[in-house]
Structure to design on (308 residues):
């Protein structure tokens, strides 16, 4: 039995809808359904009544859900107590950031913040969007820094979590240049010939945004998924080697664009904007985090983000 299965059941109990619960849990609906089935197999009884709409928990599901909520709360309190003893010394915060942002935005941002506030120690964990949200909700981190897009929102309860805009980034279709410096695979491609697509795996945030951009592109395009990865840096390396087109945050490829290793594969209509956001639990009692959040609230719109 996995703890995440309990969180899945709690999400269904809250939203009474598999689709909505899957969005909150940052997984596909089919994946959520499989995990609930695995939990039911472990418990040995049906926990969700799939014959009703909205979806309801069975009597056994309600009982198990209540006990699970209390058990989870106890485990999280224990973990928080144990981790407090392992925290970095003195003033410190724990940050969970998206993979790309942890290597591009975060180092510059920390340097700027340290010029405005008292020095503090930082422990950084790079994670995908699902793991980052789980870390924030469970209290495993003080601050979460991730990308946001209005058509692929992160659904966090505003009564529990504060959010601040910290900057912006461009999300561009890029590929290697040909001998003339033109895109090797220009969008939307030639008639009847698929454009090789270096794609994100299905459950990634940037993958969802890329799918939205492609769907809303100026013209239909035939893409062939020739490679998949969950990190932008891996797709960038494949694009440089000439394997296809990848949608990448501009902040992650500044040097490669300047050196001519990558070029835009399409016009501005094949691109979009990403907002960089920070999230903090309102109930967070770490005094260093509280002071930092007050600083961010006072100047969030002035903190430079990734290049436009």
């Amino acid at each position: 039995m996995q703890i995440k299965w309990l969180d899945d059941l709690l999400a269904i109990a809250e939203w009474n809808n598999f689709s909505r619960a899957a969005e909150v849990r940052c997984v596909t609906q089919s994946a959520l359904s499989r995990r609930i089935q695995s939990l039911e197999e472990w418990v040995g009884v049906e926990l969700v009544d799939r014959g009703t709409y909205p979806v309801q928990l069975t009597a056994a599901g309600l009982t198990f859900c209540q006990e699970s909520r209390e058990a989870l709360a106890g485990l999280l309190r224990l973990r928080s107590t144990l981790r407090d003893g392992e925290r970095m010394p003195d003033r410190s915060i724990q940050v969970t950031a998206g993979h790309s942002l942890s290597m591009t935005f975060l180092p510059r941002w920390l340097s700027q913040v340290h010029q405005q506030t008292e020095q503090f120690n930082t422990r950084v964990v790079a994670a995908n969007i699902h793991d980052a949200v789980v870390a924030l909700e469970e209290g495993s981190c003080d601050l979460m820094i991730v990308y946001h897009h209005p058509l692929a929102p992160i659904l966090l309860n505003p009564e529990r979590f504060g959010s601040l805009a910290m900057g912006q980034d461009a999300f561009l279709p890029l590929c290697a240049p040909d001998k003339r410096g033109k895109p090797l695979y220009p969008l939307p491609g030639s008639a009847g010939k698929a454009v090789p697509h270096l794609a994100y795996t299905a459950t990634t945030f940037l993958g969802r945004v890329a799918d939205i951009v492609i769907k809303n592109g100026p013209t239909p395009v035939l893409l062939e998924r020739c490679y998949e990865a969950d990190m932008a840096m891996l797709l960038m390396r494949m694009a440089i080697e000439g394997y296809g087109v990848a949608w990448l945050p501009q902040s992650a490829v500044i040097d490669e664009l300047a050196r001519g290793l990558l070029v835009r594969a399409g016009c501005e209509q094949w691109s979009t904007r990403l907002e960089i956001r920070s999230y903090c639990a309102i109930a967070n009692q770490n005094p260093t985090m509280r002071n930092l959040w007050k600083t961010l609230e006072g100047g969030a719109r002035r903190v430079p983000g990734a290049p436009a």
The longest strand covers residues 161-175.
